[in-house]
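Intended use. Records like the one below are meant for learning the mapping from a protein sequence to its folded structure. Do not use them to infer anything beyond what is encoded.
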Amino acid sequence: MKKSILSLALLFTLILAVNLQAQIKIGVVGGLNFSSVDIETDGITQSSNTNFGIGGIIELPVYKMFTIQLEPCYLRKGTDFKEEGNPLDFVFETNYFELPVLVKVNFGIDYPYLFAGPTVGYLLTSELRTELDGIQFTGDLKDVTEQFDYGISFGTGFEKSLGFGNLFFEARYTLGLYNCQKGGSFEMKGGPVSETLEWEKDRDEYKNNGLQVMAGVKIPLKF
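Structure written out for the chain above:
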């Protein structure tokens, strides 16, 4: 995991050094994440959650029509699910600091572009919620959730010149590649009631997926 983070940092430093005299763009991005979870456990039905993400963007020229786009952001993931034989509805929610590193193919302003690349997420919070007889039960899942999440993102976008910068819209799908279930025990608490639950890494395996619809503004830096 540490090697992956170090590799991304070295890649960023190398590209920045090579392109110091080229036009680098920075900006802000935000939008919706229609998140779902690929759950391996039998007897689970789920529906996607509408969450959000917000962050920054750095676009670095590489060669002709190719650029590297980094989008460090705060991203909320999760799902709503039910367990067979259990009348309760559960809300599973995680928050990550996410770093997609995307190779972008540009066809010019006012034309669609394509991109794809890996993404790494660092877990900030993980929570499970349900309600029983009007009492809200909450469980902190951070100790039973892996600290890092890995995936691959791909999608398309459109960029429009504003004179001082560019307005852009993106739609991308992120496919989770890593089992985020760490396994272990946690407590569900509601009022004076507390119950300890046990999860297993392999039996309760899941991966994060999501369709992100984003918009933002980029402006060029001049050196």
